[in-house]
Amino acid sequence: ALELCQVAKRFRVGDQLIEPLRGVDLAIHDRDYVSIIGPSGSGKSTLLHILGCLDQPDSGQVLIGGNDVSRIDDAALSAFRSRTLGFVFQKFHLLDRMSARRNVELPLDYNPGLERAARRDRAMACLAQVGLADRAEHRPLQLSGGQQQRVAIARALVNEPRILLLDEPTGNLDPATGAELMEFIDQLRREAGVAVVLVTHDMEMARRAERGYRLVDGRLEPVARTVRT
Amino acid sequence: ALELCQVAKRFRVGDQLIEPLRGVDLAIHDRDYVSIIGPSGSGKSTLLHILGCLDQPDSGQVLIGGNDVSRIDDAALSAFRSRTLGFVFQKFHLLDRMSARRNVELPLDYNPGLERAARRDRAMACLAQVGLADRAEHRPLQLSGGQQQRVAIARALVNEPRILLLDEPTGNLDPATGAELMEFIDQLRREAGVAVVLVTHDMEMARRAERGYRLVDGRLEPVARTVRT
Ligand SMILES: Nc1ncnc2c1ncn2[C@@H]1O[C@H](COP(=O)(O)OP(=O)(O)OP(=O)(O)O)[C@@H](O)[C@H]1O
Ligand SMILES: Nc1ncnc2c1ncn2[C@@H]1O[C@H](COP(=O)(O)OP(=O)(O)OP(=O)(O)O)[C@@H](O)[C@H]1O
Ligand SMILES: [Mg+2]
Ligand SMILES: [Mg+2]
After folding, report:
1. Which residues of chain A have pLDDT under 70?
2. Among A154, A198, B120, B213, which is least packed, fewest CB within 10 Å?
3. Does the distance separating the beta carbons of A172 and B171 come in below 8 Å?
4. How does pLDDT run across B69-89, given as a tens digit for each residue?
5. Nearest-CA neighbor of A216 among A19, A38, A24, A27?
6. What are the chain B neighbours of A178 within 8 Å (beta carbons)?
7. Cα distance from B113 to chain A (closest Cα, Å)?
8. Which residues contact A46 (CB under 8 A, 6 or more apart)?
9. In this structure, what DSSP letter does residue A99 have?
């Protein structure tokens, strides 16, 4: 389980104090499907980065299997992240000098158990799953915005993570491609027990989650699920 | 009027030939409101860049007031772009080392008629219009994804353009903020006669345009407008 316990985060810019997170509680277990919505600037990306152990809270704890992350040494935390978590960033963070395939292979470079050919195969399989097998050798600047977004998604999947953290993964995708992607994510959950935390502005997608939250004034409020017909 | 006449564009990557545009015709007049939809990777951003004179077609023409753009010298074309067009990029292209306000002011630096204080005032007014007056001194990395997107929009407005070219301007915005933005764009059209070309994956937004197109196999197909009740 991955947990946030009364997590708070603030930023200071000049003499301005911004407090996007003011006491966030959240627990993620296997096969969970959580969506988080909220206004632009409310703190969703900040929350996801802390949940993904890429940023630290100013107060409160992040717990992995009950252990306080701040007591885990950097090497172990880094290993946990690369093996357990798949992160899709709102701004993708692809490396412009590498092909789509090399970008997707990158997390596997830290996986000593895989031969080079096997790494390539797995990266190609992930690209195929997001419909981009025929764009494998393109560099990010030779790809459309939505194609770059899908490469970022493929990269998050390549290490077969237990927990997928997705920061607005369909923002640059047409409805059909976005729906295909979410279908595929659903399948990962059913078949591999992957847990999914989805930050999104798409209300349709948010509703498909099993648990929905809205980030309001730095705290998560549960969103009532509409009855499925 | 800004026109595309049988515009074609192709890219070569290795031995692969990609032809996103294969004969695009489009005419934009004052106060027009055109939306363009289509699958991820279909060629919408490519089309918008050519329309905005930021890229050149391989065949066909781009016409400004009936004049072939390829016969206009670089200086005149650059002046036309900065005075007439406002471009919001899918990936924002903000400068990370400058504050939001300096980013928005940037197009005004080429406007010799404005005093420094007046430039600052105008930039602040544009930031206020997208709800970011209180983030003026933040640098892009201190802003959320949707805030960066709004800074890009403010920058496109600062020179009071005649034609606004928007590449998925609401992809990182919650529905309420996105709606506010489109309301404001509508107002610009009504009050200032600004023409708007909107590339979007949001079907709701696309429907609000007066003319809708879908990019299919490198050509624009008109989308029938649903009857308003
Ligand atoms: N490094 C930083 N320094 C200062 N302020 C920051 C920093 N990062 C984020 N912020 C501020 O914290 C707030 C939350 O940012 P965050 O990126 O988490 O929002 P968000 O909910 O993801 O928004 P969006 O939906 O637009 O992506 C914003 O108001 C932003 O200006
Ligand atoms: N510089 C380039 N070199 C090679 N191919 C390119 C280049 N730029 C774009 N492409 C290809 O051209 C096609 C159209 O790209 P474009 O960015 O116009 O798509 P789009 O419709 O804007 O997609 P999205 O909705 O995902 O933003 C894509 O298949 C892309 O891979
Ligand atoms: Mg965000
Ligand atoms: Mg695009």
Report:
1. 226-229
2. B120
3. yes
4. 999 998 989 888 888 999 999
5. A38
6. 201
7. 32
8. A9, A20, A21, A55
9. -
